[in-house]
Write a structure and sequence with these properties.
This protein is an alpha+beta fold. Helices cover about 25% and strands about 15% of the residues. The chain has 4 helices and 8 strands. It has a 4-stranded antiparallel beta sheet with strand order 6-5-7-8. A two-stranded antiparallel sheet has the order 1-2. It has a two-stranded antiparallel sheet with strand order 3-4. The chain is elongated and about 90 Å long.
């Protein structure tokens, strides 16, 4: 049996459902179906559903996680890694510590999950147990916009207890 290629051009079966493309989809062409729609290629599906290309790990991080020391230096740590960092800081700063990383004297603790958005989530928090030092207030003033909404509201409420006002701004 001798099969020779057909001389008739392939028939147009459909058009790409991505309105920005709308390319012809020919009989025999490999295409992508999503629901009832047919697309000429995967990138057209992605574009039509709003998917975007990102660099993994390059997403904007909201909030801060770590400890603000009495000298105004911020020590960053991953979510859930506070106890380990607290042990190092109390030794470095000579602070008595009962082992509760939420209550490190003279430090302000911040926590925030990596999945939090601009307002934060139930894992976003901060604990201030003592009146902040002028250096801590300076850091808070300079970095207020780095906090999630949850963290910012809590810090402003705690500062209010000590009659400390800092300008509330939001540049992001």
């Amino acid at each position: 049996m001798n099969k020779s290629p057909s001389l008739t051009p392939p028939e147009v079966m459909d058009f790409c459902a991505n309105p920005e493309c709308a390319s012809e989809i020919m009989d025999g062409q490999i295409a992508v179906r999503h629901g009832k729609d047919l697309y000429c290629k995967l990138s057209c599906v992605a574009k039509s559903i709003g998917a975007v290309t990102i660099t993994a790990g390059g997403q904007k991080k909201y909030g801060v996680s770590g400890f603000l020391a009495p000298d105004g230096k911020f020590y960053d740590c991953g979510y859930g890694k506070h106890r380990e960092l607290a042990m190092k800081l109390v030794a470095q700063y000579g602070v008595f510590f009962d082992g509760d990383s939420n209550k490190v004297p003279n430090f302000i603790k911040f926590g925030c999950s990596t999945l939090a958005g601009p307002e934060g989530d139930s894992a976003c928090h901060c604990f201030m147990w003592d009146e902040p030092t002028p250096e801590q207030v300076n850091w808070l003033t300079a970095n207020l916009d780095e906090l999630t909404g949850n963290q910012r509201r809590r810090i402003l409420a705690d500062l209010d207890l000590y009659d400390i006002e800092i300008p509330e701004r939001r540049n992001s």
